[in-house]
Amino acid sequence: MAPASSRAALPAARRIVVKIGSSSLTRPDGHLDESALRSLVDVLAARVTDPATGGQIVLVTSGAVAAGIGPLGLPARPRDLATMQAAASVGQGQLVARYTEAFAGHGVRVGQVLLTAEDTVRRSRYANAQRSLEKLLALGVVPVVNENDAVTTAELKFGDNDRLAALAAHLVRADALVLLTDVDGLYDGPPSRPGTRRIPHVERLSDVAGVEVTARGSAVGTGGMLTKLQSVRIATGDGIPVVLTHAGDAAAALAGADTGTFFAATGRRTTARRLWIAHAAGTQGRIHLDDGAVRAVRGGRASLLPAGVTKVEGVFDAGDPVELVGPDGVVVARGLVAFGSTDLPALLGRTTHALREELGEGYDREVVHRDDLVLEGTDRTP
Ligand SMILES: Nc1ncnc2c1ncn2[C@@H]1O[C@H](COP(=O)(O)OP(=O)(O)O)[C@@H](O)[C@H]1O
Ligand SMILES: N[C@@H](CCC(=O)OP(=O)(O)O)C(=O)O
């Protein structure tokens, strides 16, 4: 098989996560664009029913809010959170009904999976989501995934299915991730600016570090190119190549044609646990380290001990993800903390020996064990 770092791997990729954004599923009046939805389904169903690829598709779809506008008789896309939640709740049912109908026309079944970012990163929930998606795929079903917008307020406000798609790709160990949007790839500047051009291939994300990307593109999309690049970072760093292209070019992208932007996989497949720590949705707290502890954590195989901690911020329980911050305020690593925020302050700055003497066994352990640490920006343990 062609290396996963080239487009040539796409035609033979067995398992692909495809994400489509609101901007590609919404008409200018804010309503769901059913013909765009059907065009996408035609392409995906062809892949799933192609005996040559035995293709498996996980579809991450936005558009719940858009699909709720019509049934609720709203004049336009709502702006306030409660109405957005209501629209998403009504619209999600509509959206899945449209997908069910369109895929059924090709003899393909779909199953709705509503996730929050937490479900893809919290270990206890992660295994659950993974099992459910695996079973659906094994049964030949196309999982239709969206965020659980009706209840996840923050997700709806900053809602970001781009990142969710990358985490879903990790969850199912996808061979590729395809991000479909309303622009035909990453441009070397905001595409509305005259003279900007499509970047066809990105070997390493650092090659496009200077490219100007905005957080909001279309009127209905959330996150713009910024969250797409975050998604690309998670996926490629996890060994999954990404194609970012216009929804109308979905067939070409799956065929490995020169459309959109191809992002080569850079990292190796990482464990669920490391990805979970590196990308845990919303760390619960911050632990401040002295210089010696920063060096120890950065430099080698060291755990974080109570003696190197100067301050604790936030409310968290033992086992929660936290950020480890140096004296300069820079985040050094993320990790799973072994003590809750109520217990931790009493241990600060004291040696493990002193803690054992004074507080007894159980208090003389690491604040963050090295197996539970991931250095910032690397997805790897020290
Ligand atoms: N450098 C860039 N290259 C391409 N698109 C960009 C860039 N910077 C910002 N964008 C904008 O990102 C938008 C896509 O994001 P968004 O509207 O959130 O889409 P979606 O609904 O598909 O998630 C494009 O319409 C485009 O205007
Ligand atoms: N989950 C929301 C959309 C969230 C989102 O990330 O939107 P987009 O940036 O268009 O992919 C919905 O279904 O309306």
From TrEMBL:
Keyword Nucleotide-binding found: yes
Residue positions binding ATP: 19, 181-182, 222-228
Chief localization: cytoplasm
Pathway participation: Amino-acid biosynthesis; L-proline biosynthesis; L-glutamate 5-semialdehyde from L-glutamate: step 1/2
Keyword annotations: Amino-acid biosynthesis, ATP-binding, Cytoplasm, Kinase, Nucleotide-binding, Proline biosynthesis, Transferase
Enzyme class: transferase
Compartmental location: Cytoplasm
Positions contributing to substrate binding: 62, 149, 161
GO terms for MF: glutamate 5-kinase activity
Catalytic activity: L-glutamate + ATP = L-glutamyl 5-phosphate + ADP
EC identifiers of the protein: 2.7.2.11
PANTHER family attached to this UniProt entry: GLUTAMATE 5-KINASE, ISOPENTENYL PHOSPHATE KINASE
Known role: Catalyzes the transfer of a phosphate group to glutamate to form L-glutamate 5-phosphate.
Family the entry assigns: Belongs to the glutamate 5-kinase family.
Record's protein name: Glutamate 5-kinase
Biological source species: Myceligenerans salitolerans
Gene: proB
